Every structure is written in C-alpha cells, then in structure tokens.
Amino acid sequence: MGTGNNEDQDVVAAILKDHRTMEDLFRRMRSVESDRPAALKEFSALLVAHGEAEEAEVYGALKRFRDIDDEEVEHGTEEHAEGNKALLALLEVEDVGSDEWDSRLEDLVEAVSHHVDEEERTILNGARENVPAERRAELAAAFLEERAKQLASECGSVENVRTVVNR
What we know:
Elements: H1 11-30, H2 36-63, H3 70-91, H4 99-130, H5 133-152, H6 158-166
C-alpha cells in the first residue's frame, strides 16, 4: 500500500484516474503524430468499462447517502448514454483522421468532458464529503472488478458499443 496507489482504496481516486487517462487519450486521438486508431480503441474500451462499472457498482450505492443529490446521479447516467452515442458515431467512421472523423471526435470530447467536469464537481465531491473511507474502499474494489470484467469482454468493440447504446 505505497503512496500513489490509493485508487484501489478509494473509489473517487479510481474514477479520477480514469478521467485523467481519458483526457490523455483525447490528446492522442487529436494528434496526427499519434497512432489514432490505437488511441480510439483504448478510449472506447475505457469509456464503456468505466461507465458500466459506475452504473453497476457506484451510482446506486451513492444514492443511498443523504447528502448526495440523486438527480445528479440520474443525470450522470443520462450523460453516459450521450457519451456512448457520440462514441458509436465516431467508431462508425471508416476513415480515421478524415474531416468527418475529426468532427465526431470533437463531439465526443465535448460530451465526455462535460460529464467528467460535472461528475467531479457534484457526485465525486459529494462522495468525498459524505461516504466513509471504508465504504469508499469497498466501492473501489467493486468498481475495479466490474471494470476489469468489462475490459476482458471486448467492451469497446463497435458491436458492443452499439448494443449498449440501443438497450
């Protein structure tokens, strides 16, 4: 349990770590010098695994805490759906780096950045202030387990993203 490894002890830290990774992947997807298809593949898997794990293991648990706004949590779920739709639209463009691809990438960046910003200001700050450390550690374990399960199941494939969007 060295320092810097607190994401397995605190669900807030685990979620924030993914948010920062997503931002790095956005930079890679925007850069003509990067392997953009690889960055998109990594991003797609992470976005789906992260959102599904939050909805399955974190959001419901947080709603039980009095000082966390249930409407913010519901809104978070709606924003996941918007992010997944924007992701699917990008994955469906054949030609990586084309004008169409770039334009859909910006839609995705906007949807996800908006959600990340809002979630960090509302839900995650609420969790920090109201959820005891022991419970945050349990939620981290549950979140990371579901996230790993999703990542192992090719959750970022266009077929799976389509399924998630259409359910």
